[in-house]
Write a structure and sequence with these properties.
Strand content: 15-25%
Distance between the termini: 25 Å
Largest sheet: 7 strands, mixed
Number of domains: 1
Structural class: alpha/beta
CATH class: Alpha Beta
Helix content: 40-55%
Number of helices: 13
Order of helices and strands: HHHHEEEHHHEHEEEEEHHHHH
């Protein structure tokens, strides 16, 4: 279980989806056909929540409602899309954890609430932010019904903590949408026999997005819980080299490793946090990149040596 992957092929032969699987499968096209929105529309809605105080919603969205709970670290926004044929839609976007220095300076209570919610998710608990997200979504559904917008035209999205909130709401209310870097939610709150329409996009090297315990596709990351699951389909994106980094960190943090190896594993794991950043997801989702050529070139030139040499 803890054998170190020593070549890129060791990683790719581990029966995992590759980056070009994502670009070749029908998941992205199905999302567009079912919602009329592109994957980047969902991503930009999730991304916008981090700057909602200073920027207008991205096209094609119009802000129609929002909710804020400072102590719980919760912000959610209902974004409407007016369709020419009258089939209007609403995307409910939830803000993820924002540990930036600006947030620390301007609203430390809000940041503390987000970090507390993250800790509760890590422990398999239900933070107050989940309840806020559920209540807000219920209000939006009721208002949409008055406007003649059916439930089938309402979706959720979010990155990180916002993705976890979206997953929780989707599980309780049977909604579709897309999440990015979501850690998953407690298996105890996922109803049996559901037909999830939610797609969870995870960058290979993201230690947060890989926290959910879903073999065989889960990367062998030391940070995972079998009690935490993604609600809906999981699609890996970005470079498989990030997954190789998590595999190596996992091996170095396995039982009976030396102090030096464990320290190296912690260093790799800490460095992998970069894969969780919203900018990492933005790069991985760029539609004008030939992913297969890019990743193939990367792996062809990647020098992956035995573990001791990684730290020379």
């Amino acid at each position: 279980m803890y054998a170190l992957p020593t070549t890129p092929l060791d990683f790719l032969d581990a029966d995992r989806p590759t980056s070009w699987d994502f670009f070749n499968n029908t998941c992205r096209q199905n999302l567009i056909e079912e919602t009329g929105l592109t994957l980047l529309d969902f991503f930009h809605a999730a991304q916008w929540t981090y700057s909602h105080l200073t920027e207008a919603p991205p096209q094609p969205f119009t802000l129609i409602d929002e909710a804020f709970d400072r102590d719980a670290g919760f912000y959610g926004a209902a974004l409407r899309v007016d369709a020419p044929d009258g089939t209007d839609q609403i995307v409910i976007a939830f803000e993820g954890t924002d540990p930036s220095s600006q947030t620390l300076r301007t609203d430390p209570v809000f940041l503390a609430g987000q970090l507390d919610a993250d800790a509760q998710i890590y422990l398999g608990q239900i933070p107050e932010a989940f309840t806020d997200a559920f209540n807000f979504t219920q209000e939006v559904l009721e208002a949409a019904e008055v406007l003649g917008i059916p439930k089938e035209n309402i979706y959720v999205t979010g990155h990180s903590l916002g993705g976890a909130e979206a997953g929780y709401v989707a599980a309780q209310l049977d909604l579709g949408g897309a999440t990015f870097g979501a850690p998953g939610i407690s298996a105890s709150v996922i109803p049996e026999g559901g037909t999830p329409g939610l797609v969870n996009y995870v960058v290979y090297g993201d230690p947060v997005g890989n926290y959910a315990g879903e073999p065989p596709n889960r990367l062998s990351n030391i940070l995972y819980s079998d009690d935490i699951l993604h609600f809906g389909e999981v699609q890996y994106i970005g470079s498989p080299a990030g997954g190789l980094q998590l595999d190596t960190a996992n091996a170095l943090l396995a039982p009976n490793r030396t102090d030096t190896e464990e320290l190296a594993g912690l260093g790799l794991l800490a460095d992998a946090v970069k894969y969780h950043l919203i900018t990492s997801y933005e790069d991985a989702l760029q539609p004008d990149v030939d992913a297969q050529a890019m990743v193939g070139s990367l792996l062809a030139n990647l020098d992956v040596s035995p573990v001791p040499d990684l730290w020379v």
